[in-house]
Write a structure and sequence with these properties.
375 residues; alpha+beta; nine-stranded mixed beta sheet; two-stranded antiparallel sheet; 11 helices; globular
Length: 375
């Protein structure tokens, strides 16, 4: 059995930013237009007028201040309110593969590795732009990697589930090294016309290189243990899919074809599940909360992370113990915990322990316990 390690990470960040102020202006213009068009229905009591959003409402609800997106113009146009992405020819790289490629090159460079060193590519994301061929195989081809590749989807937990799959193969010796990429165009599945969720998501791509620890060329994080769990719930759901045209409503633009969430139930049910999962994982590895130097959590909501951090450490975490990036990136689904890890891990000392945890639809939760090694 081999020991697996994370030796490199990379983050692709889109060039376009939407601030809360810009988002509120666009949403309120949309709400005013709809309320004007439905004035008679509102007067008759058959239509509930749309409420305005506000910067204060968004920040208090989430802790988010801005988000990066692949297309700003479409999202902020009150007559469109979704990203408009260029239709690509089948001979061109797909947009998700292009995003993943950028992050992957950065991760490989940090690890001191080339495509020839990688045996496996996993594309783990909450949404995939097509059913087949796999995005992972496209990334594999673009980088010139031999071996094999596959896609996987465990919603916001996809990155940690992908890491566990790669770690298991490294440990058994079936592969030497793996590249796990998480391209997330969350702006595409968000309903920007819904006041309760129009501020939640942003776009990004992350990549992680994992390999045998004994082969690492520099500083790295030994993977001590990984753990995943799922429990079915409808409280986070998206009903889009390839059977859409076969149903009576066909391809009608229904609300349930985008991100749907029962936020209060999610908060009530997911937090105990995640907190218990982390506690059980640490107990299994005989790690006390006092030994944990860093938590890199899924970046969905600041209040959720504050709750989980307090449960995991037994006290309120200091900012450097539980770094948040959602104020800048918003919720980027599977990529959030990897952004936090990539941007807030260099300062850790030899032997320091940290834990990556992501959670979301499914319900699903994945955690990875790491030990820092300096060379």
């Amino acid at each position: 059995m081999f020991t697996a390690a994370i030796t490199g990470t990379g983050v692709f960040t889109p060039s376009q930013i939407i601030t809360n102020a810009e988002l509120v202006e666009a949403f309120n213009a949309y709400a005013d237009r709809i309320n004007g068009e439905r004035a008679d229905d509102i007067a008759a009591g058959t239509f509930e007028p749309l409420q305005h959003s506000s910067e204060d409402f968004i920040f208090k609800a989430s802790g988010i201040e801005q988000r990066y997106v692949m297309d700003k113009a479409g999202v902020l146009n009150p007559d469109i309110m979704y990203p408009q992405l260029r239709q690509r020819d089948d001979g061109e790289p797909g947009i998700m593969a292009e995003m993943a490629l950028d992050a992957a090159k950065k991760a490989l460079a940090q690890a001191g590795r080339t495509a020839q060193d990688i045996d496996l590519v996993i594309c783990a994301a909450s949404n995939l732009e097509r059913a087949y061929p796999a995005i992972a195989i496209e990334v594999q081809q673009l980088l010139g990697i031999k071996g094999f590749a596959f896609d996987m989807n465990v919603a916001c937990s996809s990155a940690t589930f992908g890491i566990q799959a790669a770690v298991d193969m490294i440990r058994t010796g079936s592969i030497r090294a793996a590249l796990v990429v998480n391209p997330e165009i969350c702006s595409g599945h968000l309903e920007w016309r819904d006041r309760d969720c129009h501020f939640i998501f942003g776009d990004v791509a992350t990549a992680t290189v994992l390999e045998r620890a004994e082969a690492a060329k520099g500083d790295h994080f030994e993977v001590l243990s990984s753990s995943c769990a799922t429990e079915f719930s409808n409280n986070i759901r998206n009903n889009n899919g390839y059977l859409r045209r076969s149903r009576p409503d066909g391809v009608e633009d229904r609300r349930d074809m985008q991100f749907m969430q029962n936020g209060r139930k999610v908060f009530k049910e997911v937090l105990p599940m995640v907190s218990q999962h982390i506690a059980d994982h640490m107990r299994k590895e005989d790690i006390d909360s006092s030994e944990l130097k860093r938590l890199w959590l899924h970046q969905a909501n600041k209040s959720m992370n504050d709750f989980i951090g307090k449960k995991a450490l037994g006290r309120r975490p200091a900012p450097d113990e539980q770094p948040n990036i959602l104020q800048d990136y918003a919720n980027t689904s599977s990529a959030g915990s990897i952004i936090a890890f990539s941007k807030h891990s260099d300062d850790m000392a030899e032997g320091d322990l940290g834990l990556i945890c992501s959670f979301g639809a499914g319900y699903s939760v994945g955690s990875v316990i790491l030990r820092r090694h300096r060379t």
